[in-house]
Write a structure and sequence with these properties.
Blueprint: E1 2-7, E2 10-12, E3 16-20, E4 23-27, H1 35-50, E5 65-67, H2 75-80, E6 87-91, H3 99-112, E7 117-121, H4 128-140, E8 145-149, H5 155-167, E9 174-176, H6 186-191, E10 197-200, H7 208-217, E11 222-224, H8 231-244, H9 277-282, H10 287-305
Parallel strand pairs: 5-6, 6-7, 7-8, 8-9, 9-10, 10-11
Antiparallel strand pairs: 1-2, 3-4
Helix pairs in contact: 1-10, 7-8
This protein binds magnesium ion.
Length: 308
């Protein structure tokens, strides 16, 4: 599925669609992921295909808008593609890009939407010093910051940064994203006080029931976000967000980053969706890609049910 603009270095998204009695499910580990990682996504995907829907606390959600690391003159048109702009997440610290561009992008966005709450997502690409500099700048500019998402890479750095913020009484929240998926577990983030908020995605964490268990055990709120999924995966995320009802706008409006999605309209509600089947045909992969994914599925399935 082609994207309107490149995102985390890709310009299209590859995914496998399963159809069962419950409807559809999506399996979309990123191409570079290992079999082990992909098998966790598969566990989530099969659970969504086969298990009943989670109990919900609210019927609908308001998602945040997401701004990729784009040129300044494209900000307005990209954000106008999002229906809800109460909370805007801006991607920052893109590798190879000057830091000043981040600041310009933040300034431009707050000029356009002065009422919006701003989330900044660095994907772990900054140092503690760079994070502190950014925090001082944000305060100076009076930016309405909701939280800083994964500013630094490791849990140790996150803990250190958070302690520094508290020591200086800066009142800035830190959200953990990659820290709770890559090589580590959510409970470590919680126990080391590395974050104020946890970003959760239903596929990378192995499914909705896994996240429901995490929610029961950790002391900080969970924010549901997408892994750049199609409407099928987003719909599962919406159900999850409705069941958690954490008070933070979930990052589930990423459908508008696609040229077009697999539904005509994705309701931000815990409902079953109706796919536009002609789009499934339209975006069907070529035989080589299909073969590659079948092999991937075989490997991931094997890893899941008979790991060595
Ligand atoms: Mg993130």
């Amino acid at each position: 599925m082609p994207l309107k603009t490149s995102f985390r270095g890709i310009n299209h998204r590859e995914l496998m669609v399963f159809e069962g009695e419950n409807g559809f499910s999506e399996w979309s580990p990123f191409p570079e992921y290992t079999t082990k990682e992909a098998s966790r996504w598969l566990k989530a995907s099969l659970e969504w295909l086969e298990k009943p829907r989670p109990e919900i606390k609210t019927q609908s959600i308001t998602p945040n808008a997401t701004l990729p690391a784009v040129e300044l003159d494209r900000i307005e048109s990209i954000l106008s593609g999002f229906e809800h702009k109460k909370t805007i997440k801006i991607k920052i610290a893109e590798p190879g890009e000057a830091r000043t561009l981040d600041l310009q992008r933040i300034e431009k966005t707050t000029e356009l939407y002065p009422e919006a709450k701003i989330r900044l997502d660095a994907n772990g690409a900054m140092t503690i010093e760079q994070s502190m500099e950014l925090i001082y700048w944000l305060r100076q500019k009076d930016v309405n910051l909701e939280y800083l998402e994964q500013p630094v890479a490791s849990i140790e750095e996150m803990t250190q940064l958070r302690a520094e913020i508290q020591a200086q009484d800066l009142n800035v929240l830190i959200a953990a994203d990659e820290s709770i998926r890559k090589h580590t577990d959510p409970f470590e983030v919680d126990s080391k006080e590395a974050a104020d908020v946890m970003v959760v995605k239903w596929q990378p964490l192995g499914g909705i029931s896994e996240i429901t268990e995490i929610a029961k055990k950790v002391s900080i709120p969970l924010v549901v976000s997408s892994a750049l999924e199609s409407a099928i995966g987003l719909n599962a995320g919406i159900w999850l967000a409705c069941s958690l009802n954490s008070g933070f706008d979930p990052g589930l409006a990423t459908s508008s980053l696609f040229v077009e999605d697999l539904v005509d309209q994705l309701p931000m509600e815990a409902v079953e969706i109706e796919l536009n089947r002609s789009r499934l045909d339209k975006y069907a992969a070529d035989s080589e890609t299909t073969e590659r994914w079948r092999q991937r599925l075989t490997n991931a399935y094997q890893e899941l049910y008979s790991p060595e």
